[in-house]
Amino acid sequence: MIDLKGKVAVVFGLANKRSIAWAICQKLSEAGATLAICYQSERLQRDAETLAAELPSAKTYRCDVSSDEEIDAVFAQIAADFPVIYTVVHAVAFAPADAIKNDFLLTKRDDFRIAMDVSVYSLIAVARAAAPLMTEGGSILTLTYFGSDKVFPNYNVMGVAKAGLESSVRYLAASLGPKNIRVNAISAGPIKTLAARGIGDFSKILNAVEERSPLHRNVEAIEVGKTALFLSSDLASGITGEVTFVDCGYNITGL
């Protein structure tokens, strides 16, 4: 059994109970970790606080990761509450609706910038702010998707952003390795989250995975949470810079 008692985990990206971030919070908490849960805006505050109340010793913080000032401020708050942190989970991604639903060729410069800033650069900014508090080493995790490598309908600029995110994981792993901080990504299969609502014909992707994946089903958020728990623990002490697929094996299939 994985024991994270006495370890503090900071989780960015909690939106509601369907969030992958929530499944990760649940599994980390079950293992004994203390949670610092960050939500993006006042609109999401109530759900974040309601969910955090279900976990022992969890605290909530507001942080918009598109702002360096807010990232610095939230880690100052976290440092005041928890001088040492062990795990950081970056479950954040965003692109303007037009950049997802329109043909990729029509992607606007500003929409591309926003997608890369929020979905990719924010991992770098969060890792930089978190590292000084990770004095005992630890694990930084982010969430990606197979659309980084293969073309999926109605995913468009987000696929390019996820490719950048995965490359950033490798470079951050090299940067932070000397501090004994591991950086990894989990590539989850399609899950009905708030973010997934923005992807047109999402049900077709779900159906394709159920039909073609070796397990002939779609993955559940809690299974991603289990993988995050493993990667956060000493059981994964030799793993860094990797993308771990949790997609019922869909990524290995051809036809």
Automatic annotation (TrEMBL):
GO terms for biological process: fatty acid biosynthetic process. Keywords: Fatty acid biosynthesis, Fatty acid metabolism, Lipid biosynthesis, Lipid metabolism, NAD, Oxidoreductase. Its EC number is 1.3.1.9. Signal peptide: none annotated. It holds the Pfam family adh_short_C2. GO terms for molecular function: enoyl-[acyl-carrier-protein] reductase (NADH) activity. It catalyses: a 2,3-saturated acyl-[ACP] + NAD(+) = a (2E)-enoyl-[ACP] + NADH + H(+). The active site is at Y145, Y155. It is an enzyme of class 1 (oxidoreductase). Coiled coil: none annotated. Pathway: Lipid metabolism; fatty acid biosynthesis. It comes from the Bacteria. Substrate binds at A95. NAD(+) binds at G13, S19, I20, Q40, D64, V65, V92, K162, I191, K192, T193, L194, A195. Belongs to the short-chain dehydrogenases/reductases (SDR) family. FabI subfamily. PANTHER family: ENOYL-[ACYL-CARRIER-PROTEIN] REDUCTASE, ENOYL-[ACYL-CARRIER-PROTEIN] REDUCTASE [NADH], CHLOROPLASTIC. This is Enoyl-[acyl-carrier-protein] reductase [NADH]. It comes from Granulicella rosea.
